[in-house]
């Protein structure tokens, strides 16, 4: 279970990600974000953890080879990581850096754990017969908690929604993010109290 401070830190990381994308302006390609943490090497307390975020660019021209775009790409990536053979998927390899992802998810650093997978992308929102450009950051954490950060073009601040229970109004990226979390989560070693 992620603690409240961990969820707070994770939300801050996702907001920083969206703010960085906003500084780059509109028309940027989508990217994946893998966030992990591990015991901090600089403190003797095992409770202090260090967060690491790895940004993986997505080739937008190649994502078009997937029928449903990003949602299908995420499902294919999860399937490849589950099978532990991502290199044999040329369409996937043309979209994302599989070596970078493989290195991060197979890292054997003691205490390293997955916090979340996220995807940042631009979309179109249809509202009252009008089209609006919107930037989205969709994420799922190791406890299956969903995060949605959205910013309409021209808005000064994003809107944050944290969903404790998956529901019927999920973003189309949710199934792929769920499967990525499943495919890359390590079983936690038993604690001294559960042995």
Present the secondary structure layout:
Blueprint: H1 4-24, E1 31-39, E2 49-57, H2 60-63, H3 70-83, H4 90-95, H5 98-105, E3 113-127, E4 130-141, E5 146-152, E6 159-163, H6 174-184
Antiparallel strand pairs: 1-2, 1-3, 3-4, 4-5, 5-6
- Tell me the series of helices and strands, N- to C-terminal: HEEHHHHEEEEH
Number of separate helices: 6
Structural class, by secondary structure, is alpha+beta
User: What would you call the quaternary organization?
Assistant: single chain
Number of strands: 6
Termini gap: 18 Å
> Strand arrangement, largest sheet?
2-1-3-4-5-6
- Write down the overall mean pLDDT: 84
Radius of gyration: 17 Å
Question: Spans with pLDDT under 50 lasting ≥5 residues?
Answer: 189-195
Give the helix proportion (percent range). 25-40%
Give the amount of beta strand, in percent.
25-35%
Biggest sheet statistics: 6 strands, antiparallel
Coarse morphology = globular
Notable features of this structure?
29% strand; 195 residues; alpha+beta; globular
Q: Can you put this structure into words, describing what you see?
A:
This protein has 195 residues and is α+β, with helices and mostly antiparallel strands. The chain has helices at 4-24, 60-63, 70-83, 90-95, 98-105, 174-184, and strands spanning 31-39, 49-57, 113-127, 130-141, 146-152, 159-163. Strands 2-1-3-4-5-6 form a six-stranded antiparallel β-sheet, sandwiched between helices. Helix 3 (70-83) packs parallel to helix 6 (174-184). The chain starts with a helix and ends in an 11-residue tail after the last helix. The model is unreliable at 189-195 (pLDDT under 50).
């Amino acid at each position: 279970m992620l603690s409240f401070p961990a969820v707070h830190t994770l939300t801050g990381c996702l907001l920083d990600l969206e703010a960085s994308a906003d500084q780059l302006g509109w028309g940027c390609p989508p990217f994946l974000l893998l966030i992990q943490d591990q015991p901090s090497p600089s403190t003797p307390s095992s409770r202090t953890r260090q967060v690491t975020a790895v940004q993986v660019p997505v080739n937008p021209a190649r994502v078009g080879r997937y029928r449903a775009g990003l949602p299908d790409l995420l499902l294919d990536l999860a399937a490849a990581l589950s099978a532990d053979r991502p290199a044999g998927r040329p369409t996937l390899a043309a979209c994302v850096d599989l070596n970078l992802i493989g290195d991060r998810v197979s890292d054997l650093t003691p205490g390293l754990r997955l916090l979340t997978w996220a995807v940042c992308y631009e979309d179109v929102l249809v509202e009252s017969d009008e089209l609006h450009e919107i930037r989205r950051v969709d994420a799922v954490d190791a406890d299956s908690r969903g995060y949605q950060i959205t910013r309409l073009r021209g808005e000064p601040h994003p809107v944050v929604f944290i969903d404790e229970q998956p529901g019927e109004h999920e973003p189309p990226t949710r199934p792929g993010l769920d499967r990525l979390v499943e495919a890359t989560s390590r079983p936690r070693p038993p604690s001294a109290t559960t042995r």
